[in-house]
Write a structure and sequence with these properties.
With about 280 residues, the protein is α/β, with parallel strands linked by helices. It has ten helices and ten strands. α1 links the parallel β3 and β4. The protein is globular and about 50 Å long. Bound molecules: NADP nicotinamide-adenine-dinucleotide phosphate.
């Protein structure tokens, strides 16, 4: 298997995929600003070799999945769609928990319907640390959904390292999705555990997120200086740095822009030299 690919739930995917969270309207709520561009971004991603798309029924809600369905169904056989359960939205776009076993099941069923799939290849349990639902009960539900064939594999998101160890003894963990980027490395211990175990680590907010307008990643002096020295962009530097951290890293940068999509995918080819690596390694905020 070439080094630019990784096995995700037993299927080879390129290490640079796509996150669909930027496709709905502002605040990940409501329709996209320009529907035709959102559809074009998805189609262009797949035409450019993306074979792993991260989504959620609660992006929109419903909007990201409906766009994916409209743009890409019937899906190419190599495309691995990954969704997540554990949250919902209120009428004003607020994020609300949906952590109970029956809500996790409903979440999977909604994804199956909107994506028109018999099985979602991977579903992440997006754990809310403050929930009073026992984690093991949630894992049992995810295992049951997998055993029934409604999901292909169980992934985990937003979890503490202790929960990761618990999960490893209760299920086969297909991937872990926590926040991690050039300047935000509070999840380093979890990152290292996944690397040691050979579990794909899928950092969310790889480019610093749309939620923080001051974007500490793209505005970091290390990313900006490296970008201008190498003649690339800070986003490409941030993505290349992540890819260089471990062969288990699998990226899903989010964008609503065709130009940014092209720019982000070009980071596959960027090799950071020693000077860049030293500078960037010291960039954690
Ligand atoms: N499990 C979880 O709890 C969780 C949480 C958050 C996200 N996620 C997943 O992780 C994916 C990635 O995270 P994210 O989308 O929140 O954040 P991100 O990828 O770190 O950043 C997205 C932001 O970066 C901008 N951007 C993208 N490419 C750029 C470029 N080349 N130059 C400058 N700006 C650029 C986007 O704006 P434009 O649209 O203008 O390009 C958007 O504002 C999501 O899409 C989602 O699938 C999961």
């Amino acid at each position: 298997m070439p080094t630019n690919t990784i096995l995700l739930a037993g299927r080879p995917v390129h290490r640079l995929g796509f996150g669909a969270m930027q496709l709905p309207g502002p605040g990940v709520f409501g329709p996209p600003t320009d529907r035709s561009i959102a559809l074009a971004v998805l189609r262009q991603a797949v035409e450019s070799g993306v074979d792993h798309i991260d989504t959620a029924q609660f992006y929109g809600p419903d909007v990201a999945n409906e766009l994916i369905h409209e743009a890409l169904h019937p899906y190419p056989k190599e495309l691995v769609l990954v969704s997540k359960v554990g949250a919902a939205r209120d009428e004003r776009g607020g994020w609300i928990p949906a952590q109970r076993p029956e809500e996790l099941r409903e979440g999977v069923e909604s994804n199956l319907a909107s994506l028109e799939l018999d099985q979602v290849p991977v579903v992440n349990l997006r754990r809310l640390p403050e929930t009073d639902v026992p984690f093991v009960e949630q894992l049992d539900t995810m295992n049951a959904l997998r055993d029934e064939g409604l999901i292909g594999a169980v992934g985990l998101s937003n979890l503490a390292i202790d929960d990761y160890q618990t999960a490893r003894s209760h299920t086969e963990v297909a991937c872990v999705q926590n926040a991690y980027n050039l300047t935000g490395r509070t999840e380093q211990a979890l990152f290292d555990a996944c690397r040691a175990d050979g579990v794909p680590f899928v950092p969310f907010f790889p480019l610093g997120s749309a939620f923080f307008p001051e974007n500490p990643v793209l505005r970091s002096p290390a990313a900006q200086d490296t970008a201008s020295r190498l003649g690339v962009t800070p986003a490409q530097v941030a993505l290349a740095w992540l890819l260089a951290q471990a062969p288990t890293v699998l990226l899903i940068p989010g964008t609503s822009s065709l130009l940014h999509l092209e720019e982000n995918l070009a980071a596959r080819e960027l090799v950071l030299d020693e000077e860049a690596r030293v500078l960037l390694d010291q960039a954690a905020g």
